[in-house]
Amino acid sequence: MHSLFQRFGVGLGSVILICVATWLLGMVLAPNLMMLDFSLRPNLMPAQIGGPDDRYTLVNFTALFSDPVHRGIFLKTIWASALVMATTFVVTYPMAYWLAKVARRKAVAFVTVALIIPFWINEVLRTLAWYILLAFNGPLNVVLTSLGVIDAPVRWFSDIGVLAGMVYAYILFMLFPVYNSISTLDSAQVEAARNLGASTLQIHRRIVIPHAKAGIATGCVFTFMLAAGSYVAPALLGAPGSRWFTEIIYNWFFEGGNWNRGAAYALVLLALCMAFVMAALRIFRVNLADVAK
């Protein structure tokens, strides 16, 4: 705080502090405290609110783990989000390295613009584009059947469709952090390793990836949290057997009318995301300051 006042002065520094405190209290702390209060109360009729039955309880949380269907969807969302994260990293890492260390400046600019332009469109519209692409009579089935890869059109609306849509939707959140980290690596280290006889796999495993661990951790945190909290892609590209935990939360709020149960489920998802962030920072041995860079 003292350094803030030294840099911006007492007046401007105080305004910045007030704005940050207002944002944290009004947009972060207050909504989550309200969600916590809702989650700890039973779902009552308006006339019962404030009565003897209106008391704190854990029934909304225990309901999740006692319901085998919802528990299964919750566990599936965890590993499926991890799969989205891993797939996104596998897809983006070669591209990030190529952009950072191989491509020329004009090629980097062209590819970057080509990647960013589709994201000027709303996520819903981009997901609808995947819906059309993966449709039973869509372009993908037409091409595959014409090439003889498949004998008849395939219904892609399942876990495969959700995975493809999410990887596309969150690819930039993995690509740019990894690219920024790799771009700071001195190319002389790679050349020295190659001159000493290191293979390409050894160079990436022992030099590039350890150097880019902060960017990889950032990308993993972003993609996992976005995938775990996604609603559009599972709702549009998923099948009845590929439901996402966010769909269950949505149903509690807007279809079941049980905001208390929905708040409890949402807080469980929030706790999962926070635990993943802490675990990722520990695994990659980076701190929040490294991720913030």
From TrEMBL:
Residues 74-280 form the ABC transmembrane type-1 domain. InterPro entries: MetI-like, MetI-like_sf. CDD domains: TM_PBP2. It is a multi-pass membrane protein. Keywords: Cell membrane, Membrane, Transmembrane, Transmembrane helix, Transport. One of its GO terms (biological process) is transmembrane transport. The chain crosses the membrane at residues 12-34, 78-100, 156-179, 214-237, 262-284. Signal peptide: none annotated. This is ABC transporter permease subunit.
